[in-house]
Design brief:
heterodimer, A: 356 residues, alpha/beta, 8-stranded mixed β-sheet, 4-stranded antiparallel β-sheet, globular, B: 8-stranded mixed β-sheet, 27% helix
Amino acid sequence: MKQPLIEINDLHVHFEVRDGTVKAIQGASFNIMRGQTTGIIGESGCGKSITAKAIMQMVPKPGKITQGEILYHYRDKLNPGQEDIINITQLDPDGPRIRKIRGGEIGMIFQEPMSSLTPVYSTGFQIGEALKLHRMVPKKVGDQMDAAIMEYRQVTKEEAREIGVEMLQKVGLPKPHERIDSYPHQLSGGQRQRVMVAIALSCEPMMLIADEPTTALDVSIEAQILDLMRELQEREEMAIMFITHNLGVVAEMAEDIIVMYMGKQVERASALNVFYDAKHPYTKALLESIPHVGKRDRERLASIKGMVPSPFELPSGCVFHPRCPSFMPGKCDVIEPSWKEVQDDHWASCLLYEEV
Amino acid sequence: MAKILKTYNLSENIEKHLKPVHIHERDVILDVRGLTKFFPIKKGFLKKVVGNVQAVDHIDFFLREGETLGMVGESGCGKTTASRTVIRLYEPTDGAAYFKSSVLSETNEPVIVNLMDLDAEDMKKIRKEMSMIFQDPINSLNPRMSVYDIVAEPLVIHGEVNNKKNEQVVTNLLERVGLRSSHMRRYPHEFSGGQRQRIGIARALALNPKIIFCDEPVSALDVSIQAQTLNLLKDLQADFNLSYVFVAHDLSVVQHISDRVAVMYVGKVAEIADSDELYNNPLHPYTEALMSSVPKPDPKYESKRIHMQGDVADPSNPPSGCYFHPRCQYAEEICKVETPEFRELKTDHFVSCHRAEELDLRGV
């Protein structure tokens, strides 16, 4: 039943800078299933956003995918029976194929609604831009034609505007007919983020990458955007890769959760298992360090001691060992843990679950 | 310089809403009455005032010694403006803020002063007793000043120019907030976000303040660093008997750190109560809706969200009656016409809603 849409195998992304090499991602491997939400959590600098950018073949310079592959199971919307497997890492980052994927087959919502929209173009133009590039409508020759010989053309300006209004209505923007002519500065933060969602969803993508889509928003608007994404997912059977550091949001949205630390995935399991039966000490510490609304204890929060290490001087052995509460001297600082299935469909990389 | 301070008592003939109410209680340190800040909207060649953005509109609250008052609300509701107006970073349009000050009296006996009446000289003195922690740890520290200069700057401004003495003070402060004092000569860019926020906290503590206004102090930090910073703020409060006004939009953080919480909506205080009471038995429909939208870190939790219709009201053109009525699911005729009175419904539980008595609202 569950079919993979994106398969990431042993992905490595390195940045060669003056001070050395930053290993932003070191061996990430996971699948994103069709119609499912995969949450990626971790602190800033752990490689969550770079993973998303690697899927779109948009790793910023001087970053490079040095190893691994990203397999994209492509199905034509018009001919869903057939499946092609495309290795995204092999594609030319400026080529026509990846440009069809970006925005068209995989949509993305960026972190900052304030700076991701061009201030000089109206909302309608910015939605239309994506539509004109990616959305195809059937040519009308007579009334009905056989699907096999159906021809497609790109949408016209007028149609793009119509679809734009419809999308704005779907994302719950009041007065979409007026809003389509507004410029980003005339919209509030929540409205801008909804425009971003509208752009990302206007081309009916197979997958949506949401990179901290609600971090800058108020809870009430955050709730609206999350509900909207879930609703659209049910309707369109879209996969969502949800990147966030807000554990509350990820608990609500995701079916599968991947926890990352310093460019490595440390744990992967279903949301229930991560929240109720976390295996990796980092995941446990992360869960304990957040205050719970409604459950108030006057006590101090359990915080993770120390700080995220410098990316140039990664600790030996397990990267988490200097901050780990269950640090085993002589083991954790020497041996690098391997990625193991510790329970049924519950993966972690920690020496506590290995015989050494 | 014997300066006669304007002290207030209840018999004095001042407007009703400006009278101090709580300041005479023993442990109350700050009593804000009817505080108002309107930002004028100017248009045209002559810069005629065509309207006002009613950022803060006649709000009342008080703060006890050693307690934390959380302020929550959606962006643009005036929570930051309110805290900045109290320390007169903005000049108030109207209102009073009574404060028990020890620096202005000669005997060290606290006197009650109205912050809004003080001149610049007295205000400067009183700022020793109030400081601020800002949201953005990157932009609130001058990149061209070393950590020592940043933390010692308040001391220098208030006339402490003995470098040796200041260095000792800064050393103590840095160690107190968990930074190494040997890093005193470094510059802000050499520190991580959490460390920079600690520098900001050290600076706020430099003059032994009584009240610290924290404006979203942890919202730019990662979860694990956020926990460290919240713990630090709690420890400092216990050590120095500080009072915090804690402005934030993360409801779970506010609940964790606050003793009492004020919920603001479009420049008005909707509700103030003890934080457990507020989260469990809200009396205002806006509080209820806000609480229901907080995502819970529990995949088993089934959300019973209340969808608020439409957007936050425009503070330059607020709706009639209760500002929340267009989005309120319990709104009735009276809500559209009459502005609700801000009243104490239970002990220490203030609310401004016409139907607060009859509604049975759900907490978290």
